[in-house]
Amino acid sequence: MSGRILLKLVQSDYLKLVLIVGLAFYLSFIPHYSYPYLVHLDEWIHLSCSNEIIKEAAAFGLTDPFKGGPPISNQLFEVGFHVYWAGFYLVSSIDWLGIFKYFPSIVFIITVLSVYILAKRQGFGWEAALMTCLIPTTVGIMGPGFLVPVALGLPFITISLFIAFYLRSWTSYVILFVLTLFLFSLHSATAIGLILILIPYILLNLKDNLKHSIGIILALVVPFFLAFLIVPGIRDILVIPTARSLLVPHSIPEYITIPNIVKTYGYIPISLVLIGSFLLSIKGGRIPYGILFGCLILLLMLAIYYTLGYGVSMMYYRGIQYVMLMMGIIAGAGLMGIRKIRLPLWFSSRLKSPHITNNLGNILCIIIVGIMLYMAIPTRLQTIYYRMIDDKDYQAFVWIRDNVSNGYKKAILDPWKGTAFTAVTGKNIYAWIGERSEKDDIVASRFLEEGCKDTAFLKENDISIVYTRLDCENPDLVEVQEDIYLLKQELIP
Amino acid sequence: MKLKLGNELILIFHLTIFLVLIITLFPSSILRIILGLPFVLFLPGYTLMASLFTKKSSLGNIERVVLSFVMSLVVVTLIGLLLNFTPWGIRLYPIIVSITIFIIITSVIAWFRRYRLDDADRYSVSLNIGLRLRGSQSTLDKVIYIALVAVIVCAVIAIGYAIAVPRHGENYTEFYILESVDGTIGYPGTLEVSEEGKVVIGIVNHEQHTVTYRLEVTINNVKNNEIDPIVLEDEGKWENEVTFVPQVAGKNQKVEFLLYKGGQVEPYIETLHLWINVEPQ
């Protein structure tokens, strides 16, 4: 009977998962919808770092791809991310634009599926997967729409929880150990986030399941110390400054505040988180409490940083993603609670429409999901993302990469386009804007605005390429392509 | 309906070897992308999971698939980091060889551990798709099932196609000056009156159709040389030496290269220029 089969299909987790996976792909693809290039500044930085690995065939002892000199912090503390994508690029031969356009969504699909398998054993798999789809992507907090370490780290948090919660053999501790080691190489903030989330679960197991707790503790802590041996300079560059920063209050940028994030995430999902928290606390047990208190620890960390300014800034900026991941799981429990609402028998027996009364929870669930998506999709479509380069810039950069010889090593251009320039051409730049504008950026902008006339400045700073759309009337420069100028060879030191 | 694949590890082994051959013999083949994706996204993790969790009851199918994706990322990264400390470095062939060895070793361990278990306990790939397209099912039932499968297959193909096939770019022409074809001569800086200056000019047609171009060289806005016609088919490239001969001595003379399309009077794209000093003979 077609009706029965349709009902079976609707009830099947597989069909729901296909739709949820489609939704996850769509929502995380929004930043890339009509723009073929990398969107976030950090994506260009990571691409440059992966290119540097490919160029040197090494992961450590590299130079800053932008300005030369000692490596930037991303090259040291997110080396795992760059190594993976370098290897991926070499083996698959998919071009970088394709990787950065489609793989944020593919990684997010893996995140959503990992949430599904984690929550399924608690009875709210697809609900949690659906709520996870609503993790927002913005330029400030980043998110699943970008191919960055924090987004790639999300499925590893849920998979590590899955292993810690459900698998209890020596192999599970080995896998957890390897995962944590990998996370330290990928994104140390994610590894610390995972440890924080697992602390309540470890404590809950101490009394009755000491062996399991010790197994998890070892799997989490040993990689932390191994990272000291593997990553050069981690103590002086990362650990000591981070420990010192704990004692100093920090200011918070306006665009990353908790009220803003709550607004972006949505009030209905937040209400579902509250319902889910209530239901999980009633249900009890180590795993529901582990999920609940894991999320609370992260929330507490964010609240302390937001209100008092104390904490590690990186954990605040990136911790928002981990909190939303955990909240998605808890909201899934809330949605399941609503789906299971049944009218009392004495009441439903008096009503004339048994179909509606028997399925009240399902109907409420459909309405809530419908409203959530009706509100969430336009909000995400309206989110503003900056665009660092256009077609003309990209074509010019590709031309420089393919036609300008290695003798021309360093360029000056609009500092805002600097990271993209290095990522595409592999050449150094005089200035690039990272988190904020610096002195070099102002000098570069002034040089270009004044018509690139100062040859002495170019020679002093070993600059031999100028890329600008402004007028450039310097007799020492040859316009070799539209907007591309090369310093005459006899002037290059 | 239950589909049983038998020993999937043998299939994985063959796919891996096939990929190695493709990369070695046909590096630009589309098969490299098709096989390369699972090679770095799925297979190492899958065989690792197969070697660690040999019992059917240890993990569900979706759990196994998700863990395979996640663990593949871990395996490829850690192999890459280990290669950093070897003389071979992080290069294409060391990566491929290392991942292949990893897949083979974990597959052998999985095979060995599996065959120590009873048939009933042993994990094997099977897909219970609950598909009963028999006479007892109505036509509508069959249509719904087939439509569902078709939608999923189409979505997967569409994503694969979008990734594998580069986007169709806008229409434009590349116009550039090179120092020389082999990059050894510098741009002319100082010339004598009547001495020939040389540069290599390049034009690449990305206009999606055949275009006739005209190239003009001027010195201080006075026409000095012209090349006409230059007919290029779509994606055609013209890279040739272009000469100019200065007639008047003087410093900072602007040599401009103007590219016209068809019979147009205005240059098609922005002019290129260089500056020369011209000394008396």
Keywords for this structure?
A: 2 domains, 5-stranded mixed beta sheet, 4% strand, B: 281 residues, alpha+beta, 3-stranded antiparallel beta sheet, 26% strand
Strand order of the largest sheet of chain A: 2-1-3-5-4
* Percent helix of chain A: 55-70%
Shape of chain B: elongated
Q: Give the helices and strands of chain A as they follow along the chain.
A: HHHHHHHHHHHHHHHHHHHHEHEHHEEE
Terminal-residue CA separation of chain A: 82 Å
Choose one word for the global shape of chain A. globular
Largest interface: A-B, 75 and 76 residues
- The poorly predicted ranges of chain B are none
Number of strands of chain B: 10
Strand order of the largest sheet of chain B: 4-10-9-6-7
Domain tally of chain A: 2
CA-based gyration radius of chain A = 26 Å
Helix content of chain B: 40-55%
Stretches of chain A where pLDDT falls below 50 for ≥5 residues? none
Describe the structure.
The complex is a heterodimer of chains A (493) and B (281). By secondary structure, chain A is mainly alpha-helical. Chain A has helices at residues 2-11, 13-29, 41-56, 73-77, 79-92, 96-120, 125-132, 149-166, 170-186, 188-206, 210-230, 234-245, 258-265, 267-283, 286-308, 313-339, 345-348, 354-358, 360-382, 391-403, 418-425, 439-449, 455-460, and strands at 410-413, 428-429, 465-467, 477-481, 484-487. In chain A, a hairpin with a 2-residue loop joins strand 4 (477-481) and strand 5 (484-487). In chain A, helix 2 runs antiparallel to helix 6 (96-120). The mean pLDDT of chain A is 89. By secondary structure, chain B is an alpha+beta fold. Chain B is built from six helices and ten strands, in the order E-H-H-H-H-H-E-H-E-E-E-E-E-E-E-E. Chain B has helices at residues 8-25, 30-41, 43-52, 61-84, 92-114, 139-164; strands spanning 2-4, 126-128, 172-178, 190-192, 197-206, 211-219, 222-232, 237-244, 250-261, 272-279. Chain B has a five-stranded mixed β-sheet with strand order 4-10-9-6-7, with no helix packed on it. At the A-B interface, helix 1, helix 2, helix 3, helix 5 and helix 6 of A face helix 2, helix 4, helix 5, helix 6 and strand 3 of B.
